[in-house]
Amino acid sequence: VFTFEYLEPFANGSCSQYANCLHCLTDSQCGWCELTSSCQSRSENEQETCFLGNDWRYLTLLPGMCPNCSNYISCTSCVNTELCEWWVEEARCTRMGQRPGSVVTTEECPMPCYQRNGCDACLDQKGRCVWCQATQKCFSFSVYTSEYQFGLCREWLDQAFPLITAHENSSLTHKPQEQCKACAAHSNCSACLSALSCGWCHDASNPMSGTCVRGDFQQPHVECSVALGGREARWAYAQCPDVDECGLGLHDCHPQAECTNTDGSFSCHCRKGFIGDGRSSCVRTCYNVCVHGFCQGEPDYKCLCDIGWYGDDCSKNCGCNNHSACPEGYQICEKCEDNTMGEFCQYCRSGSYGNATKEIGCRKCECNGHGDFDKGECDIETGECFCHDNTEGFHCEKCQPNYSGDPRNGQQCYYQCEARGVLTEPKGQGISSLQNYLPPRGGPPTRECLWIIKPDVDFGTAIIQLQLNSSQLNVTCGENAVYVYDGLPELVEMGSQSALTAVFCTEDALPTAVVESRTGHLTVHYKQGRPNESFSALYKVLSCESCDPPRECRDGQCVCSEGFVGPSCEEQICPENCSFALGRGNCDKNYGRCLCTEGWTGPSCNVQ
């Protein structure tokens, strides 16, 4: 390991072989003579070796004292070193070989700034020269702080920032001489003040009328009143005076707009009763601003108020909790909307919940179509549903025990398969073999299903309609079937009278089949065979307690009106009297159908 105490400076002694200061000082026996730009031995007398004419200097012995290219501020002194080159655009001296095309001889140097006469000559050539308007001299900007430190030149023109550009031969060219033009060449205030040492003499009543003259912040170099031919004049140098375009009629506002003067400009606003940008358009609208509503347009141009507001500008509250209009006046609520009711629409209607007097308002109960209407469907405060149709849950989204299905979105819950299930629901429901009864003390689930439907009605005998869709029937014909009886079959009660009304299986099923029982009892029997077999069906009860058209209560039963039959009473008995008057057929009143004469057919014997 070498330490400083064992190192000695390099010493050769052949000083004349070194061509520059830094190279010279690498030899500890040499020093640099700046006057002669030569490397000499330190052992010699400087007065005898480092002199030029009558001047002599001490040798430079420290590298930090060596002259650097950046120390030269003129092209001539830079290239005379023969070690530096001059960059004309930047007016900068740097080490030789840095950039191709740099100046390396005095013949290539541009004319020094101080030798250039006039503004155009000063700025038209490269070299970072600036023109001082106050002294009318050209100088290098690098000497500004040293020569003009007391503010003798407060403003100057710099060729690096020409004020005007022009297109010549389809290329953008800068013209520094344009900066040197006389102030009179500028015809408006903004162009005038953008030129150095120029100001605007203008008419006191119309600032746009004026002339551009030389001057400064204090005053113009000529009398403004003289320049304007004796008119009352004012001087602007720092910024252009404000022009009252509105008062002088120099604006472009729409005829239905008002002009407002602003500092340096103006603004246009459509008059009351008109709308637009104020310049290109001002379209008629309502005279008043519709605070809580909108303008209904022509021909009346009146405000159409939002519900709960009234007045010419829809700014007055009806006092109906924003749930009703009030064309007759305050708190005379026309019709409560948004699920509300009451004199001032202050209550939620049945089937909704919330608070009609607050922002939350009243929202419809969300019970999947299974809310109990007699109870109002749901709790008026919490929205929890009062469920029926064999459903349960906050939104009636689940089936009760012993029922299966998905009751969401108004779907049905079906009573499970039991060995003897008795259904007395007077409003009807569903039955299904998809879920089987499980004995409470264990054992296999029930596979043989028997549903006895006997609705509890207060008057007369109910008519029971069972509807079965083929999409819900998966029972293979020839192996199994669903049996429907009108009454109680013998397998339920010996000696009872019943009629086998229908037998259903998949292959023979209609898309939708409806079976009707008039005895007040309807029995469905099914014994599950294969594990994947099942069926589901719906039944409804028709009774005199709720017998709506096209049915009517007759002899204690809700039956079709005279002359019609079918599950929906849509089929006419012997339509058009079987064209009897034309001799085409007769009505069989026992079966309610037409017996057509030979040569005729159709429901009313009207097809030949």
TrEMBL record:
<dbReference type="GO" id="GO:0005604">
    <property type="term" value="C:basement membrane"/>
</dbReference>
<dbReference type="GO" id="GO:0005509">
    <property type="term" value="F:calcium ion binding"/>
</dbReference>
<dbReference type="InterPro" id="IPR049883">
    <property type="entry name" value="NOTCH1_EGF-like"/>
</dbReference>
<feature type="domain" description="EGF-like">
    <location>
        <begin position="242"/>
        <end position="283"/>
    </location>
</feature>
<keyword id="KW-0325">Glycoprotein</keyword>
<dbReference type="InterPro" id="IPR018097">
    <property type="entry name" value="EGF_Ca-bd_CS"/>
</dbReference>
<dbReference type="InterPro" id="IPR000742">
    <property type="entry name" value="EGF"/>
</dbReference>
<keyword id="KW-0424">Laminin EGF-like domain</keyword>
<protein>
    <recommendedName>
        <fullName>EGF-like domain-containing protein</fullName>
    </recommendedName>
</protein>
<dbReference type="Pfam" id="PF01437">
    <property type="entry name" value="PSI"/>
</dbReference>
<keyword id="KW-0245">EGF-like domain</keyword>
<keyword id="KW-1015">Disulfide bond</keyword>
<dbReference type="InterPro" id="IPR056863">
    <property type="entry name" value="LMN_ATRN_NET-like_EGF"/>
</dbReference>
<keyword id="KW-0812">Transmembrane</keyword>
<dbReference type="InterPro" id="IPR001881">
    <property type="entry name" value="EGF-like_Ca-bd_dom"/>
</dbReference>
<dbReference type="InterPro" id="IPR035914">
    <property type="entry name" value="Sperma_CUB_dom_sf"/>
</dbReference>
<feature type="domain" description="CUB">
    <location>
        <begin position="399"/>
        <end position="542"/>
    </location>
</feature>
<dbReference type="InterPro" id="IPR002165">
    <property type="entry name" value="Plexin_repeat"/>
</dbReference>
<dbReference type="InterPro" id="IPR000152">
    <property type="entry name" value="EGF-type_Asp/Asn_hydroxyl_site"/>
</dbReference>
<dbReference type="GO" id="GO:0007411">
    <property type="term" value="P:axon guidance"/>
</dbReference>
<keyword id="KW-1133">Transmembrane helix</keyword>
<dbReference type="Pfam" id="PF24973">
    <property type="entry name" value="EGF_LMN_ATRN"/>
</dbReference>
<keyword id="KW-0106">Calcium</keyword>
<keyword id="KW-0677">Repeat</keyword>
<dbReference type="Pfam" id="PF07645">
    <property type="entry name" value="EGF_CA"/>
</dbReference>
<keyword id="KW-0472">Membrane</keyword>
<dbReference type="GO" id="GO:0016020">
    <property type="term" value="C:membrane"/>
</dbReference>
<dbReference type="GO" id="GO:0009888">
    <property type="term" value="P:tissue development"/>
</dbReference>
<keyword id="KW-0732">Signal</keyword>
<dbReference type="InterPro" id="IPR000859">
    <property type="entry name" value="CUB_dom"/>
</dbReference>
<dbReference type="Pfam" id="PF23106">
    <property type="entry name" value="EGF_Teneurin"/>
</dbReference>
<feature type="disulfide bond">
    <location>
        <begin position="387"/>
        <end position="396"/>
    </location>
</feature>
<dbReference type="InterPro" id="IPR002049">
    <property type="entry name" value="LE_dom"/>
</dbReference>
<dbReference type="GO" id="GO:0009887">
    <property type="term" value="P:animal organ morphogenesis"/>
</dbReference>
<dbReference type="InterPro" id="IPR050440">
    <property type="entry name" value="Laminin/Netrin_ECM"/>
</dbReference>
<dbReference type="InterPro" id="IPR016201">
    <property type="entry name" value="PSI"/>
</dbReference>
<feature type="domain" description="Laminin EGF-like">
    <location>
        <begin position="365"/>
        <end position="419"/>
    </location>
</feature>
